[in-house]
Write a structure and sequence with these properties.
Helices cover 0% and strands 45% of the residues. With 248 residues, the protein is an all-beta fold. It is built from no helices and 23 strands. The strands form five sheets. Strands 6, 7, 9, 10, 15, 17, 18, 20 and 23 form a nine-stranded mixed β-sheet that branches. It has one domain (3-247): Immunoglobulin-like (Sandwich), CATH 2.60.40. The chain has strands spanning 3-4, 14-16, 21-24, 38-44, 46-47, 59-61, 65-67, 73-80, 84-90, 97-102, 108-109, 116-117, 125-126, 129-130, 136-143, 152-156, 166-167, 183-189, 192-199, 203-207, 213-217, 226-232, 237-247.
Length: 248
């Protein structure tokens, strides 16, 4: 079982101690002081639909807020540098989304194909499953050179709750019968902070601060497996969550 003891001051890596507690410096948004240096984060917002069309009028917030333009583009200022931050995306008719990332000392331009929002439906579904509004969801994908390898994705949380991933297979509906895949998600996850792990035999995965907060030390983490810390909020989809993986 993993117990999270998250520090709210400073910046740096996260490690898991001998007692399986997560320690380190993982500041939250409320822990930012007025003297902290800030950067800008820019990118695009799009809809999860047949054409992945750009979304205008999306409110993107961290400490400050901005609105996406007609082409889906946005530029968010006042984001703390060198910290673990959460960006929120909200627009009527779409599930609100949460992007957790580790900022650096300079401005960040996010890949233009990311920050996708899922349409609202009745009943509300995500990855083919009915959504509990009191819980959150996670969407993940595997990046890599050429065709991304299939890897197993798991999450650990303080109470030891088990959540089964739903994987997408090419030309097939999403389902939890498979044990690995290049993309998928976790549905109806309780609020909290989770360690998401990517790995498979014959595959090396590396965590990126654009898709969570890289965890530097996890007990019994197999060589080549990547681990990142992400946040889940009720009613939100935490996305994108990803690791770069290469087969060998």
């Amino acid at each position: 079982m993993v117990t999270f003891l998250l520090a709210a001051a400073g910046c740096g890596g996260v490690s898991v101690g001998s007692g399986n507690e997560v320690t380190g410096t993982v500041p939250d948004d409320a822990g930012t002081t007025l003297a902290s240096p800030t950067i800008s984060v820019s990118g695009f917002v799009q809809a999860v639909n047949a054409g992945w069309s750009p979304l205008s009028g999306v409110t993107v917030c961290q400490q400050e807020c901005t609105t996406s333009g007609s082409d889906g583009s946005f530029k968010l200022s006042g984001v703390p540098a060198n910290q673990f931050v959460s960006l929120t995306f909200q627009k009527d008719g779409f599930l609100p989304s949460l992007r957790v990332m580790e900022t650096q000392g300079g401005d960040i331009t996010l890949p233009s194909t990311e920050n996708a929002m899922f349409p609202v439906s009745t009943p509300q579904t995500f990855m083919g499953a009915t959504v509990d509004p009191s819980k959150g969801d996670i969407a993940f994908f595997v990046a890599g050179p050429g065709a991304a390898p299939k890897v197993s994705v798991t999450i650990n949380w303080v109470n030891g709750s088990a959540y089964e991933p739903i994987y997408f297979a090419p030309n097939a509906p999403p389902g939890s019968a498979t044990t690995a895949g290049p993309s998928g998600g976790f549905v109806n996850v309780r609020e909290g902070q989770y360690i998401v792990r990517f790995g498979a035999p014959g595959v090396t995965c590396v965590a990126s601060g654009l898709y969570g907060y890289p965890v530097t030390d996890v007990p019994a983490l197999p060589p080549g497996e990547a681990a990142i810390l992400v946040t889940v909020r009720a009613g939100y989809v935490t996305t994108p969550v990803s690791a770069w993986c290469v087969s060998w």
